[in-house]
Amino acid sequence: MLKEWKLYDTVPESAAFARQLGITEMAAGILWHRGLTDIDSAERFLHPEKQPFHDPFLLKDMDKAVARIKQAIEGEERIMVYGDYDVDGMSATSLLVHNLKALGAKVSFHIPDRVKEGYGFNLPALQQIAAKGVTLLVSVDCGIASVDDVAAMKGKLDIIVTDHHLPGDTLPDALAVVNPHRADCAYPDKELCGAGVAFKLCQALWRELEDEDYAQDLELVALGTVADIVPLTGENRRIVKEGLAAMQDSAFAGVRALVRVAGIQDKAINAGHVGFQLAPRLNAAGRIGSGEKGVRLLLAENKEEAENLAMELDMLNSQRQAIEQEILKLAEDQLAGKDPANLPAIVVAGENWNPGVIGIVASRLVDRYYKPAIVLSIQEDGVCKGSCRSIEGLHMYEALKKCSSHIIQFGGHAQAAGLSVAQPELDAFREAFEQVAAATLSEDDYIPKVKVEFELAPEDITFELVDELALFEPYGMGNPKPLFGCRGIRAMGAAAIGSQKQHLRFQVGRTSAPINALYWNKSEYAGIVNAEAIDMVYSPAVNEWQGRRSLQCMVDTLGPADGEKVFPEREQLVEIYRFLYAIQQQEESIPYTAAELTLSFCQRGHHISLYTMSTGLRIFQELGLLRLDLEENRYYLPKATGRMELEHSPTYRRHR
């Protein structure tokens, strides 16, 4: 999928800024691109470990929460921590339970079942908890929207809500509501996740009960912070930086076991390892099993228990991946006859699709088609529960609001949301949502963008640059990995590598001192990279192998150089169509990718670039002259019905 470069503007102030900070102009420019334009904020960003944490009592109602918990500990009351089934909720639950036990509390925890109880408070569960003799319940990562449930338990169970989700118009009538997003809360850092808010509660408790400054257990807080994709700025930056370092030799047997089962025990753990290897294993418990297993793992007190639970979560994650692939295939089967290229948005639904996995499937569809995607599971009671993912340009929550007459309930934010739709309303909802997407998104919005810090030739990369960029870690939401671009380069020796030959490696830079470039899961472009001039977006890195260090480029995006961006006019489109027709006559379908078709076309004696071929294929798809069989991953030409009306293609119109 071609991406459009968004190159940052030149920063005239970078030279002076760099001198003041003692860094290079390039690093100063990257800080400026992130909105860090004064010395104090830049210093805090570059050295988060030096910055003290904010006073936890600046959070509204923190004093009330601490006073009631102190009373419960001293009175030997039973306390229940009520969490959520995602990584943030599990981490927050484990953190608070661990610290309450250390402070002498009688404490247990409850993680709701995703399917049976759903997200947030569940009144029957609250009633059962009270019936067991629990007198104080403390929520983490949930509860802010449970106004009715809290009201129903008034006088039966004391409740403290700690959460980070946006409050509604009315706050729950709890003993305390600790949430930095409260309109009347003056806490300076609003972007804490659920585990982050629980961490502040632990800080306040240790100060009040033991007169100690608490800054431990940050590996648990970092798990939730990275997994919940909150901005890695402010306190979150220090939490994650120190928490990642603590994961290497964690005091928690469960964290150590999780790191081992993911196979990263000998690596410097970064946010990517958490997001793509540790968090999915924990999340698997809440998606297809019980979220309680994740908490039990994180709280495990011996190696044997931790290893067994980590292995169990690893197996659950494998099951989750298999279920995800099965649902993704079924979703793409539904799209096979709808020509996704012409859809303003994607809405698919299937009977009893696992509700814990459909959000991942929606993300996969966005990655493949770069269109807003909604995946719904049709339940036995006739209610369709869905997960939504969006692209830049469409605020998902606002889009759903415009379709609310067809929705039972919904909630979320700009890029992701959840909803429930009655099955008889499903078709009407799909039509309404597609209309909203079509009216909101322009043709340009459907072109993915990549932000490029600077243009930098691979031969100009240095070890010093890579070391300096390490100051910007950890990367994540609000602090993306810096990417650099180079235009019109000629690569050398492109070849497929990996156990399944799925990755692409080639060389760039000076022929006398070439630098390796790696592009994960893109081996099909080897022939194209060898044949064409390319534009490359990448991040510089250092490869260490057998004691030797070498520079390399980790490729984010490849695209055609300007000289290869030849738009196919009518005559060339006719040539491409005849070429495709000849293949179909020989093989009944067209079993090639765009890259393979490009090389095959060139082998017949006529040069064409991948850009030209891909554009032609897209135009044909938009005109209904070419279909993609997603199940077989093959193109085919339906029977032609007349002359090509090129103006009916949005791609062709945009070019004209």
Automatic annotation (TrEMBL):
<keyword id="KW-0540">Nuclease</keyword>
<dbReference type="GO" id="GO:0003676">
    <property type="term" value="F:nucleic acid binding"/>
</dbReference>
<dbReference type="GO" id="GO:0008409">
    <property type="term" value="F:5'-3' exonuclease activity"/>
</dbReference>
<dbReference type="Pfam" id="PF17768">
    <property type="entry name" value="RecJ_OB"/>
</dbReference>
<dbReference type="InterPro" id="IPR051673">
    <property type="entry name" value="SSDNA_exonuclease_RecJ"/>
</dbReference>
<feature type="domain" description="DHHA1">
    <location>
        <begin position="345"/>
        <end position="437"/>
    </location>
</feature>
<feature type="coiled-coil region">
    <location>
        <begin position="299"/>
        <end position="333"/>
    </location>
</feature>
<feature type="domain" description="DDH">
    <location>
        <begin position="78"/>
        <end position="225"/>
    </location>
</feature>
<dbReference type="GO" id="GO:0006310">
    <property type="term" value="P:DNA recombination"/>
</dbReference>
<keyword id="KW-0269">Exonuclease</keyword>
<feature type="domain" description="RecJ OB">
    <location>
        <begin position="453"/>
        <end position="556"/>
    </location>
</feature>
<protein>
    <recommendedName>
        <fullName>Single-stranded-DNA-specific exonuclease RecJ</fullName>
    </recommendedName>
</protein>
<comment type="similarity">
    <text>Belongs to the RecJ family.</text>
</comment>
<dbReference type="InterPro" id="IPR004610">
    <property type="entry name" value="RecJ"/>
</dbReference>
<dbReference type="Pfam" id="PF01368">
    <property type="entry name" value="DHH"/>
</dbReference>
<dbReference type="InterPro" id="IPR003156">
    <property type="entry name" value="DHHA1_dom"/>
</dbReference>
<dbReference type="GO" id="GO:0006281">
    <property type="term" value="P:DNA repair"/>
</dbReference>
<dbReference type="InterPro" id="IPR001667">
    <property type="entry name" value="DDH_dom"/>
</dbReference>
<keyword id="KW-0378">Hydrolase</keyword>
<dbReference type="Pfam" id="PF02272">
    <property type="entry name" value="DHHA1"/>
</dbReference>
<dbReference type="InterPro" id="IPR038763">
    <property type="entry name" value="DHH_sf"/>
</dbReference>
<dbReference type="InterPro" id="IPR041122">
    <property type="entry name" value="RecJ_OB"/>
</dbReference>
<keyword id="KW-0175">Coiled coil</keyword>
